[in-house]
User: What shape does this take?
Amino acid sequence: GLVAMALVAQAMSSGATLRELAGLVPAYAMVKDKLDRPEEPWERAVERLRASFADWSLDTADGLRFAKGEEWVHVRPSGTEPVVRVIAETPEIGRTRAVVEQARRALVA
Assistant: This one.
């Protein structure tokens, strides 16, 4: 917290306002969704997700996190509900919704 405050103060010492500095930070659109968990074994859904996002890098540390450039989507089954949580982020809201829909299609196929 203190380091972040010091960095902002340093940046503002150049005469820039906080609003101007905030305008320099890239904007991203995030969508969070809950989808019904497929009744089949989770491994089958994982195979379809991997195929659907085949050209994306994959991190399996906590569910499935696919990333490509400035875009990413995280898909994981809930531990407490019969749902799959999907969170995606891209620079544009329409594209973010499309990425979530891509995951949805892979889950229900």
Notes: The chain has a mean pLDDT of 95.
